Automatic annotation (TrEMBL), chains A, B:
SUPFAM superfamilies according to UniProt: FMN-binding split barrel
Domain of life: Bacteria
InterPro entries given in the database record: Pyridox_Oxase-rel, Split_barrel_FMN-bd
UniProt protein name: Pyridoxamine 5'-phosphate oxidase family protein
Species assigned in the record: Streptomyces mexicanus
Chain intervals for the UniProt region annotation (Disordered): 1-27
Pfam families given in the database record: Pyridox_ox_2
Length: 228, 228
């Protein structure tokens, strides 16, 4: 498989549930809808990458990008998971999770407090990307995931930087989304309790961009940043 | 150890680095400072919990709370990691990671793009909490982590709810923080390139609380919500 990009799956339909992607509880919150999964992934840029080291789990935050039915993460060629994935099959078993918090759900009862959220969990085996063209596209996707349009407005990696960066690929095959939306689910007998109940929306907010002190004169804030 | 809360470590000093908590790269971004770790943990409420199932990693988002030198996560007694931890030693090896994104760092070069962030990674073995008093305190901490002061303004779990909820404890022993702060680190020869460079602040924002439609009349928005 190394260095041989295979055709991506069609962007419609749903992922096939597997033993690992069917939750043991709250099954009604699970979804395998491809468009929903893509939307949740595309709204974020920091994932939590899990792998096993010496039999124990390790979870690290890292940037990611999506191209079609593939996720990419990157790092120094010296970093632990990237070294562990190496260039040899069978690759590194990983779990990549992306979570957005949308609201705090305050019920009258402590028990029914909850969070409105959307998450995606991807199980699979990560492989180092060896094809230069795929690697270049993945690096662009990683930058554009954080700031859409930015990869075209920055100096691309030179040969040395390109060689110092390792990229892992994870196919979107064993994938599920999980989400909670809506309001409070209190017990009927709790509705008259003297506690405020409702939802506090939570969102990601961008502040005013702060230009580098040594920014060359005459460079205006680009439109793609003003639009954030 | 089960059911016998041990004294918590003093809140000063630093965690002892271990093989797992010393990063293979960017070591200057790592910290073992106890106050810093506590501050990062206390600012959040969603962690990413990693464990190993059938030899493969699983990473799930879940709520957490901190009491002294212990983290707590909770869930249905039927949920997978909580069943796996069970009530028997040696418990469940886990990795709990909490990440805050503080800014997008836009360099002139794609290579030097980065994220300002603060994260904490905790390695250890999770055990089910069996002591009722500790479990009750943990459930309060879980609610108060999301909304400080809320546990005192809600109906506590009744016996049935209490029994249906499992709580896992993870001691803060093998812990590290990692953070990036500051501005852009471009190569000197890139400073005159015609690309905007700087930092876009990112923060968590709370919207206006939306009261439940069936909220009993006369219940005002509590101060702890107005202060969010």
């Amino acid at each position: 498989m190394q260095g041989t990009p295979k055709p991506t799956a069609p962007p419609s339909g749903a992922y096939a549930p597997t033993d690992r992607t069917v939750p043991t509880r709250s099954a009604k919150r699970a979804s395998y809808d491809r468009e929903l999964v893509h939307a949740i992934l595309d709204e974020g840029y920091v994932c939590h990458l899990g792998f096993v080291r010496d039999g124990a789990p390790v979870v690290l935050p890292t940037l990611y990008g999506r191209v079609g039915e593939r996720l990419y993460v990157h790092g120094s060629t010296g970093s632990r998971p990237l070294r562990m994935a190496g260039q040899a099959d069978p690759g590194l078993p990983v779990c990549v999770t992306v979570t957005h918090v949308d609201g705090l759900v305050l019920a009258r009862s402590a028990f029914h407090h909850s969070i409105n959220y959307r998450s995606v969990v991807v199980h699979g085996t990560a492989h180092q990307v060896t094809d230069p063209q795929e690697k270049r596209a993945a690096l662009d996707a990683l930058v554009d995931h954080v700031i859409p349009g930015r990869s075209a407005d920055s100096r691309p990696a030179d040969a040395k930087e390109f060689a110092a960066t390792a990229v892992l690929r994870l196919d979107l095959e064993e994938v599920s989304a999980k989400l909670r939306t809506g309001g409070v689910n209190d017990e009927p007998e709790d509705l008259s309790l003297p506690h405020w109940a409702g939802v506090v929306p939570v969102r990601r907010q961008y502040g005013t961009p702060v230009a580098a002190e040594d920014l060359a004169p005459g460079i205006a804030l680009p439109d793609y940043l003003a639009a954030l």
